[in-house]
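Methods — Computational structure assignment.
A single polypeptide chain was analysed. Its primary sequence is given first, followed by the predicted tertiary structure written as structure tokens.
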Amino acid sequence: MTDPILSIEGLNGWYGESHVLHGMDFVVNPGEVVTLLGRNGAGKTSTLLAIMGILGKRTGSVKFNGTETIKMEPRHIARAGLALCPEERGIFASLNVEENMMLPPKVAEGGLSIERIYDLFPNLLERRRSPGTKLSGGEQQMLAIARILRTGAKTLLLDEPTEGLAPVIVQQIGRTIEALKAEGFTILLVEQNFRFAASVADRHYVVDQGRVIDMIPNTELDANMDKLHAYLGV
């Protein structure tokens, strides 16, 4: 058994006075794609922010590659090789696609080359000179993912990457996640689109009211659909 690349124990988090995470416990193993599933407001995005150290306050334990990060500054967590792709994407409107892609600093060797990124996202190659304001929602999502792939980070936190996107773009992002997994990336995915999550993930953690209430391997989804529907209200 390999040690988890990400180990979360007793993670509590606050936005100001609002206590939103109530003892999150889960692990992500090297090379896995793991999802956090739950209703709106369950604490999924807050968990990603807490892992990156950018929630208002956090306590508990967040170990990355065996190193405790709970007291670390967000910039040091990022430089350790954790990368967050936020739901709002954060594309700079005044920069073109390639300038946006080159903006984040490298944190390690082994990041994907621009050529490899364009292989994954041919749309971006076609639009490489287009400003951020001219991109569709799907192209912005591709660019947000592409931007972190060249940094050398090998553990990715993806927040709602398929939100509001056309089915053809959702399929492309699914193929990209599969390709990244094949190249040794580890991915923690927050996703409302359960059908998409089931197509890419190895395991699913169900989150409710700021804590993990169940873990379901992807191979056991069919046997647990009634329970999952009850959890998610679908």
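Note: The domain at 6-232 is CATH 3.40.50.300 (Rossmann fold).
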